[in-house]
Amino acid sequence: MPIPEDVTGEEIDKDVRQELQSMPKGLADDVAKNLVMVARLIDEDPEQAYGYAKVALRLASRVAAVREAAGFAAYANQKYSEALAEFRTARRMTGNVELWPVMADCERGLGRPEKALEMAGAPEVSKLDKASQVEMRLVAAGARRDMGQLDAAIVTLQSPELASSSVQPWTARLRYAYADALLAAGREDEAREWFAKAVESDKDGSTDASDRLAELDGVEFVDALEVDDEAPEQSADEEQPADEEPQAPAAAEAPERDED
Q: Does pTM surpass 0.85?
């Protein structure tokens, strides 16, 4: 697959670069460039990212970072069985538990929420950092909802991290999940409160909490383009009144502005 000229491979994390040092330089550079493309495209074009991940995997299947990248690319394309296999391989190669939450979410994607809950209670969770523990809580709550256990999902999300006034990178998503679970359980007033809290903490727009809040408040957004499309058009052959001169477009009458 084509690699843009601005991609050098140096953009990858230094730990990943170190993993590639055992390979011939030319091959290591090719793998690095493909990994850069995976990271660049995985959100906006996951299918393309998956293609680059497969290239990297073909070139360096024994590199843990490559297996992990292939796993995330498969996960982004909802290829949960493939993603889980790659994550398991990466974990065996490194002994690292940081992939535990996303592995559990793959189990959910495969229709096995009970397995995800089993993983949420495993000893590996205690070895996770705070962000990953919150991620595991989100997965466990999702598994409860998959099983129709709304009240249990709500309780699962109730935690010191949820109650904290401190805003962390995961705060908005945690508050959003809690609000969504409350709404699903019919607790609309509480849901509105937590969607509002999610909006407060969602500085980079990682959720659609503001839209959900507006929906609960009965606010409707109108697309200006749609309004213009629906406006009646004057027929081209309609005649102007005889006593009126044709009017020039308003834009034509406006004085031109000097460009700086």
A: no
